[in-house]
Write a structure and sequence with these properties.
heterodimer; A: 322 residues; mainly alpha; 3-stranded antiparallel β-sheet; 70% helix; B: 316 residues; alpha/beta; 7-stranded mixed β-sheet; 4-stranded antiparallel β-sheet; 15 strands; 29% helix
Chain lengths: 322, 316
């Protein structure tokens, strides 16, 4: 069955690999171009004001090349989902649409075993392709952004979590294909659901997967960290008082400093207002040191979700009715 | 049933699609070693019945048993005993014929590779051509070859000879019958061509309007039905005869009846009907609106494997 699955899917794999290969070539070429532009620009030490025209030209060259940045991150974010869905949706749905499931399910092999082997081959291929491609995307975006990898967009296209995004998309495609039977519709529904799940995890789950760290380093945000929240909170607390929002204490401070406009009283500085109201300014953040632990935790979330989808697909195929 | 388990047995089998029943209240037993013909008009539920027998479609009600094993567990024990040819002959179109056979070999422990190769040679199908490039008839032959090379004990064939020219039809039937003779395979095949069935089958199942009307030995079915021809005003059917269908010609009435004993009423001319006439009578009688006698409860129904030399002997 492993041979048969490979034989059935190899054309699709070839097309997917071709598209991925084209993306890889694009990344290598533009990445190398940015790399050289950055080297030339940073080599000129153009930090001082009133820099030369050479500096301007080098800066222009670097910043125009980094126009690819957003597109590159977009590609990096989209690839695991699209590849997983492209390979997953036709795996069962395509067979049902072609009626070849009637052939496969009347051979001497139970449906669950048939499905498990098919999914294993497809999942392995999906994860392998993404596993090879993602380091390239990571290098590429790293060169462009030179930012902290813990920050959302960089996190999404680096490390090993994208491999599990791909696995999730693949299983989602397989399940939808076995429910909808039309590869195109299954794919479209998959795009929506995959994006929704990624979005929810990033907004609501990832920030608290590992308890965030609170720091009072003021007045500027700490570097190499993903700041989740910042603002004034009561002294002795790391978060706003129960029932209050992060904005509430900021309003208190604003009200305190604004009195200067109405009366002739001495100006309160922010520090004075904070002391007056027993507040301090904190950053709630995921520090750069949490990067690998967060990658592992988020991968686990997507792996668990993939297992659920797998179980549902087995159920859908076993319960399948004409 | 005593002794060995039936090759195929259905108990209260039904399949509902939304509000309509594809198959309903279907109970019959097909003894091992028979070649059974499944006849009925389009949409009467033949394909649904075969798909349930093959374990592809899950029944809404009732159960299918293959050699005593229930289908509902989806076990290898059942799957290896059943060969199924779908009406649409699904094959992997991108595969070469040889790869299609390799697929069968990989998925079936009992695969008979030499037989598969021999059949394809006889049929003149090159093993290195793509399945999708073959003609419809050749695809049907490859699909049937795959069914037979699996060496199943029960072969379910949905319209095996449809869309085949007479020569291909002949070749396919020969391969099929050889497999039956060599391995003692039980076969259930559906067809529109009732005349064809009469030459190969020794068991007949008549399906009309989602219900099984007859499921019995062909000989018994032929022996227990009579066509009565009489004048218009001849009143009802003679005692002991159950009317299956009534047709009126210009000056006479034709009754197709099921009888348990010879008709002695001199008012009727008694003719032995052909299988086709019997089938058509059931389709006419049962295929109309819902007022016809349903399969399970009424008299004009033959279900089960009756011994034709039993107490209710056929008329001479």
């Amino acid at each position: 069955m492993i041979w048969a699955t490979w034989r059935m899917e190899r054309a699709l794999f070839a097309v997917a690999l071709g598209a991925i290969g084209a993306v890889a070539i694009l990344l290598v070429v533009t990445g190398a171009h940015q790399e050289s532009a950055w080297t030339a620009f940073s080599g000129l030490h153009c930090n001082q004001p009133g820099s030369s025209t050479t500096c301007m030209a080098a800066a222009d060259r670097y910043y125009s090349s980094s126009d690819f940045s957003a597109a590159g991150v977009g590609i990096g974010v989209a690839i695991p989902g699209l590849l997983g869905l492209v390979l997953g949706a036709p795996l069962v749905g395509g067979e049902i649409a072609q009626r070849t499931n009637r052939l496969a399910w009347t051979q001497t092999m139970t449906r669950s075993r048939w499905l498990t082997q098919k999914l294993a081959v497809g999942a392995f291929a999906t994860m392998a392709i993404i596993g090879v491609l993602m380091p390239l995307v990571q290098w590429w975006t790293g060169e462009v952004q030179r930012g902290d990898r813990i920050v959302s967009f960089n996190f999404d296209v680096s490390g090993f979590a994208p491999v599990f995004y791909g696995l999730f998309a693949f299983m989602l495609g397989a399940l939808l294909g076995s429910l909808i039977h039309r590869t195109g519709w299954a794919f479209a529904a998959g795009v929506v659901l995959f994006a929704a799940f990624r979005f929810i995890v990033r907004l609501f789950v990832r920030p608290v997967l590992i308890p965030p760290v609170t720091t009072t380093v003021a007045p500027t945000a700490p570097s190499n960290a993903w700041v989740l929240n910042e603002g004034f909170v009561p002294l002795g607390r790391a978060s706003p008082a129960p029932g209050r929002s992060w904005q509430s204490a900021n309003d208190v401070i604003a009200g305190c400093t604004n009195r200067v406009g109405r009366s002739a009283r001495p100006v309160h500085t922010i520090q004075q207002c904070a002391a007056l109201h027993k507040l301090h300014y904190v950053f709630q953040l995921q520090p750069g040191g949490h990067y690998w632990a967060l990658q592992a935790a988020e991968s686990a979330v997507f792996l668990a979700a993939s297992c659920v989808l797998f179980a549902l697909t087995v159920l859908a195929v076993q319960r399948w009715r004409t | 049933m005593s002794g060995t388990a039936a090759a195929l047995e259905t108990v209260g089998l039904g399949k509902r699609y939304g509000r309509t029943w594809g198959v309903r209240d279907c109970s019959f037993a097909l003894p091992p070693g028979r070649v059974a013909g499944l006849v009925g008009p389009n949409g009467s539920g033949k394909s649904t019945l075969l798909r349930m027998a093959a374990g592809i479609t899950r029944p809404t009600t009732g159960e299918v048993r293959v050699f005593g094993h229930s289908h509902s567990n989806q076990t290898v024990e059942v799957l290896r005993r059943v060969g199924y040819l779908d009406q649409e002959r699904p094959l992997y179109r991108s595969f070469k014929v040889s790869e299609m056979l390799r697929f069968g070999e990989r998925l079936n422990p009992g695969w008979d590779a030499p037989a598969a190769a021999r059949y394809l040679t006889e049929l003149g199908i090159p093993s290195d051509s793509r399945v999708g490039r073959l003609s419809v008839g050749q695809q049907a032959q490859v699909a049937l070859t795959m069914c037979i090379a699996k060496r199943p004990e029960l072969l379910l064939l949905d319209e095996p000879v449809a869309a085949l020219d007479p020569v291909a039809r002949e070749g396919l039937m020969q391969i099929l019958l050889r497999a039956v003779v060599e391995d003692g395979t039980t076969v259930l095949l559906s067809s529109h061509a009732i005349a064809d069935l009469a030459t190969v089958c020794d068991f007949v199942i008549i399906l009309s309007a989602s219900r099984v009307h007859v499921a019995d030995d062909l000989e018994y079915v032929l022996a227990s039905h009579r066509l009565l021809v009489g004048p218009h005003d001849s009143g009802g059917a003679p005692p002991g005869a159950v009317v299956v269908s009534t047709t009126h010609a210009e000056r006479q009435t034709n009754l197709l009846v099921r009888v348990d004993e010879p008709i002695r009423d001199p008012g009727w001319r008694v003719v032995e009907p052909t299988l086709e006439e019997i089938v058509i009578a059931y389709l006419r009688g049962g295929g109309g609106a819902g007022n016809s006698p349903p399969a399970s409860s009424q008299g004009a129904v033959l279900v089960g494997d009756r011994n034709i030399t039993g107490a209710a002997g056929p008329p001479r």
